[in-house]
Inverse folding.
């Protein structure tokens, strides 16, 4: 069983569209949507949830006003500015560290579990999907990512599926690291803009840091053909080879509006490019 | 006045909108790039950086001579960043939130906290727009401390435009909180709408006024319009898809540089926000 994670550094480069298209093309896979704080895969795959679980990753402090004598020790020690002047905890600022709990002379403070999200195992026309929804303004998205990824892996093992196809979050920090952990390879979707290249380079460094195999594709390569060409040249000598280029094609947005994958939406330039890319990526895996 | 520019979905044009707002604001404005994972505002604004300082967090350091391995530090750590292995606590740096709880809990006074750089804060100027940006070092995980240090460097007495990271989790909240107004940038697609609804949940929870900029306004469907109408959310601007704009962006040009007439549009948005009483 192989785990392929689709990432980008920069947001909005087409990770989910590419992952969903791969989900249409690959046989024997489970899809994991690890972009838990802005999960979109379910919008295309129309999942039917067969299992739903609550995720209680975060905790927040609560002060018992009966016991609190407003001595101010908690306000003095809290590094997150989470305790308001009226000795009520701001649940958004609170990081649940418990410093106030342990150091309150009146023992007036307790940590309470914050219901911080839900995760689902669903069946879709493209096979099983594990996805999640982080509550608004919640912490611990890395922890929820790990649950989604592990659950998908478990399903692959149970059902003898060859591939875990992971739609990753943008960026390079905590949830990205959690998505990459244990993966066999990363597919980076690059946008040929100066920002896209900058973000790709930081992500490539991160892959190097993890010693993880990376391959890439350029999406909407014809928005800036010179830059795309430069990227491809640079990639020849880099650790992250570019395996495909996808042209700008309004059919991609049209497919999304129709809640289809680019492959399901019918033949076209992006469809053909993604088919070729998927074959090359599978050969590499 | 502090205006943050956010969105649930990535790549909807937050940085373009934030830079255009800053370039249209007239005098006394500072752009804060709080997307410390992938800071891109400098690519559009080409600032001259005057000063780059490390962004550090405090991490516990155990004095082996004083530690008797009692485990009090590991017991209070909610993040399981400290674990006693053998007879000494071991720190898993990436899990530490720098709360200081372990140092307070140690009965032997064996834990002190020392700064560790996890990124940088750059301060400069971009043609009349003051500029502060944060950059998380590759391989580090904690965005909020770097974001807070970017905000701490904001010049006093200036209007602030904050370019926020995508998503709706802690980095987005750390960037948006404290703003007088939040501009949510989205696109008229199912992904754009879904992630907008998540971002709206967050800004409502934070209790701040907000409006929507609809970018690539003609590429998808009408669902974002319908949602905003239903929820009473103002649409501050509609920017149609324009291949020339996309190509200009790809070369590091802002909206205002590509189309100078946009200056009026963005100055108007800021004026409207100011008139709403967000002084």
């Amino acid at each position: 069983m192989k785990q392929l994670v689709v990432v980008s550094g920069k947001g909005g480069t087409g990770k989910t569209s590419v992952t969903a298209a791969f989900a249409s093309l690959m046989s024997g896979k489970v899809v994991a949507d690890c972009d838990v704080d802005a999960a979109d895969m379910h919008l295309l795959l129309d999942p039917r949830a067969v299992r739903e679980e609550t995720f209680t990753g975060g905790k927040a402090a609560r002060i018992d006003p009966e016991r609190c004598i407003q001595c101010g020790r908690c306000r003095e020690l809290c590094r997150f500015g989470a305790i308001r002047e009226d000795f009520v905890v701001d649940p958004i600022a609170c990081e649940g560290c418990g410093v106030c709990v342990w150091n309150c002379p009146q023992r007036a403070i307790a940590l309470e579990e914050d219901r911080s999200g839900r995760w689902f195992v669903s069946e879709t026309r493209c096979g099983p999907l594990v996805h999640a929804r982080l509550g608004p303004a919640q912490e611990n998205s890395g922890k929820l990512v790990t649950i989604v990824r592990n659950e998908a892996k478990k399903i692959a093992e149970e059902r003898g599926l060859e591939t875990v196809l992971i739609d990753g979050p943008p960026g390079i920090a905590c949830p990205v690291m959690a998505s990459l952990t244990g993966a066999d390879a990363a597919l980076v979707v690059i946008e040929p803009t100066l920002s896209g290249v900058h973000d790709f380079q930081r992500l490539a460094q991160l892959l190097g840091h993890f010693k993880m195999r990376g391959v890439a594709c350029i999406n909407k390569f014809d928005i800036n053909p010179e830059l795309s060409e430069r990227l491809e040249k640079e990639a020849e000598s880099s650790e992250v080879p570019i395996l495909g280029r996808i042209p700008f094609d309004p059919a991609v947005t049209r497919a999304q509006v129709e809640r289809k994958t680019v492959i399901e939406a019918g033949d076209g330039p992006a469809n053909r490019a993604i088919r070729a890319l998927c074959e090359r990526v599978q050969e590499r895996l | 006045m502090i205006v943050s520019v956010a969105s649930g979905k990535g790549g909807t044009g937050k940085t373009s909108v934030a830079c255009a707002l800053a370039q249209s604001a007239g005098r006394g404005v500072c752009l804060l790039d709080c997307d410390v994972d992938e800071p891109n505002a400098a690519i559009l604004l080409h600032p001259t950086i005057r000063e780059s300082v490390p962004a550090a967090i405090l991490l516990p350091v155990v004095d082996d001579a004083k530690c008797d391995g009692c485990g009090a530090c590991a017991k209070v750590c909610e993040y399981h960043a400290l674990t006693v292995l053998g007879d000494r606590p071991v720190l898993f740096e990436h899990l530490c939130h720098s709360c200081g709880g372990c140092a307070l809990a140690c009965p032997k006074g064996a834990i002190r906290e020392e700064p560790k750089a996890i990124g940088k804060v750059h301060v400069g100027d971009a043609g009349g727009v003051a500029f502060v940006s944060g950059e998380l070092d590759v391989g580090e995980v904690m965005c909020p401390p770097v974001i807070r240090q970017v905000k701490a460097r904001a010049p006093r007495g200036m209007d602030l435009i904050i370019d926020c990271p995508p998503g709706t989790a802690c980095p987005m909240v750390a960037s948006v909180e404290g703003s007088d107004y939040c501009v949510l940038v989205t696109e008229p697609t199912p992904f754009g709408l879904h992630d907008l609804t998540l971002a709206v949940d967050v800004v409502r929870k934070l209790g701040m006024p907000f409006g929507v900029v609809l970018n690539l306004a003609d590429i998808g469907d009408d669902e974002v319009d319908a949602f905003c109408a239903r929820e009473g959310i103002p649409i501050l601007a509609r920017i149609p898809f324009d291949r020339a704009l996309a190509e200009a962006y790809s070369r590091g040009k802002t909206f205002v540089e590509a189309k100078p007439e946009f200056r009026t549009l963005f100055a108007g948005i800021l004026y409207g926000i100011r008139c709403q009483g967000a002084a």
About this structure: The two ends of chain B are 5 Å apart (CA to CA).
